[in-house]
Amino acid sequence: MIETPYLLYLGHSNDAADIKTSRGLAVFRPDISVGEYRHDDCGLTLGLPRMDFAAARAAGARTLVLGIANAGGKLGEDLIVDALAAMEAGLDIASGLHQRLNAVPRLTEAAARLGRALHDVRDPRPDIPVGNGKRRAGKRLLTVGTDCSVGKMYTTLCLASALEKRGVAADFRATGQTGILVAGDGVPLDAVVADFISGAIEQISPARTDGGWDLIEGQGSLYHPSFAGVSMGLLHGAQPDALVLCHDPVRPHMRGLPHYALPDLAECLEANLRAARLTNADVRVVGIALNTSAMPEDEAIALCAKTEAALGLPTSDPYRFGVEAIVDQLLHDEPA
């Protein structure tokens, strides 16, 4: 178990996309986020109290979450130095980076000496089965995207919350580092060996007979040359009854690939439906989720309306405007 509350790490970051894990925790788990740690050259903030490690420990923090992303997911020297200082101040360390904390001798030696815990969130379970594609009881929704980091986790969490408020049983199934830290459980899908991706999703979203929904957090995009394999495995393992397509309308190109344009929404929808039909022939799309955080409100509202009219599907920015229309569509003619 990762001890809470958390101190959220921003470090030297100046790209908002690089702090999505820390930001996700601040948004969805403010109850266990006591403050933020950032260096003077960091131009970002989560709106939480800025604290050094000693002050955070005095305020009740138990774990420093290295909630940032960088190229290759490496633990650079600055991260290692900060993690060492945090342990000296009495904090455990949690990280979702690809390079493991437990693979850095300086960190493991300090943790052993100080009695601190190192939590590598991207370590998958050792007992993941190979997927079998057999139909299983229950109802499942999967968020898919035109690209990476377009709001799939935010959308999934908003849908889970909206269903619960209507008295519908709903469980968020996390597949990424941020979601796992928010939910306290899940599978770090991008760390799973390719042959086991669909089996990992079958494992975290097993048969259910209570009439409720599993809301499965999507990853990557079928149109992203780097990460489409994870997205395909998710589609097959989730065996979704419903899809919600997530999109960032102001993004100029695929993330990290300026030579690749974003796909057309209708084309992307059809590609995801075709892939999903391998394990659920009755899959349907129930809505479009736009990340309009970089747009003025009037433009965002107009774009949602335009997209809804063009595609004939309820469209919203889930975090900004809510998901009620998408939930209405989901519950209309839902599978038995």
UniProtKB/TrEMBL annotation:
It comes from the Bacteria. Residues 46-124 form the D-glutamate N-acetyltransferase-like N-terminal domain. Gene3D superfamilies: NAD(P)-binding Rossmann-like Domain (3.40.50.720), P-loop containing nucleotide triphosphate hydrolases (3.40.50.300). Residues 130-327 form the D-glutamate N-acetyltransferase-like C-terminal domain. InterPro entries: DgcN-like, DgcN-like_C, DgcN-like_N, P-loop_NTPase. NCBIfam families: DgcN (NF041892). Pfam families: DUF1611, DUF1611_N. This is EBNA-1 nuclear protein.
